[in-house]
Design brief:
- The chain is mainly beta and 252 residues long.
- It is built from 2 helices and 15 strands.
- Helices cover 4% and strands 22% of the residues.
- The longest helix has 5 residues.
- It starts with a strand and ends with a strand.
């Protein structure tokens, strides 16, 4: 992208080249980019890692202008407006032409082989669970299945088939920031029948380009889903994309 600056009436304009991504750029903690070549969109200060830009709202809040809508759901949890039904790729404004996505818990690295990026590869994105955005879907009310307020460490609970009567055993899930030795490395909840999914959780990993329809996007559809209906990929459209804003849980 190019930006023209007129020095004065008698001088010819000079052209400053401004990249629209980190492609072919070495790792750098401070790179100025402009994702869309229109005057209404701002310059952004970003980090480049492995030719990925790190979307970090703490480093530069102007990133929000490249999203179709933003709403704060928790002190460090931002997603689209409730009526904005999008996946991660669709959440960004037209013209950004983003194709590859990775999660970056520490907001400093973009690693395709990082374990949280393995299942969906270069289409990995953060999504909040339905109850987090206001859908009254089970396991609402099971506090032991909800994320930690401070660390945002999420938990998963055993299913009704495997739990002991009267008990809901829950397990803290590894998120890239907590202790990998004492947490559950839970990459594939969809196919793991021993667990009943997350409770309130701001940052699960899902397909950044997840397919969804007008039917599955409705609140009416979401609130009718029961605890045992959340198997398979059809759970994904009801999850809103998410990102942190305090230097944790960024996207590449």
């Amino acid at each position: 992208m190019k930006q023209s600056v007129n020095k004065d009436e008698s001088d010819t304009s000079t052209t400053t080249l401004v990249p629209n991504s980190c492609l072919n750029h070495e790792d750098d903690d401070s790179v100025i980019v402009k994702l869309v070549d229109e005057d209404s969109y701002p310059l952004i200060n970003t980090k480049c890692r492995n030719e990925y830009m790190i979307v970090d709202f703490k480093k530069d809040e102007l990133w929000k202008q490249y999203f179709k809508s933003t709403r704060k759901y928790h002190y460090n949890l931002v997603g689209p407006e409730k009526d904005d039904h999008v996946n991660w790729q669709e959440w960004m404004v037209e013209g950004t032409q983003m194709q590859d996505f990775l999660v970056s818990p520490d907001c400093n690295t973009c690693e395709e082989d990082f374990e949280l990026n393995v299942k969906y590869g270069k289409a990995s994105g953060y999504y909040m669970t339905p109850v987090t955005s206001g859908c009254t879907q089970l396991p609402i009310g099971r506090i032991g299945c909800d994320m930690d307020w401070h660390s945002y460490a999420c938990r998963v609970c055993e299913t009704a088939q495997t739990r002991e009567p009267g008990y809901w055993m829950s397990y803290e899930v590894y998120n890239g920031l907590n202790d990998p030795e004492t947490t559950l490395h839970f990459q594939d909840e969809v196919d793991d029948e021993n667990f009943a999914k997350y409770g309130l959780c701001g940052f699960t990993i899902r397909d950044a380009k997840a397919f969804h329809t007008d039917v599955t996007d409705t609140f009416e559809h979401c609130k009718t889903v029961t605890h045992e209906d959340v198997e398979g990929e059809m759970i994904m459209p009801r999850r809103k994309p998410s990102i942190g804003q305090d230097g944790r849980f960024c996207m590449c």
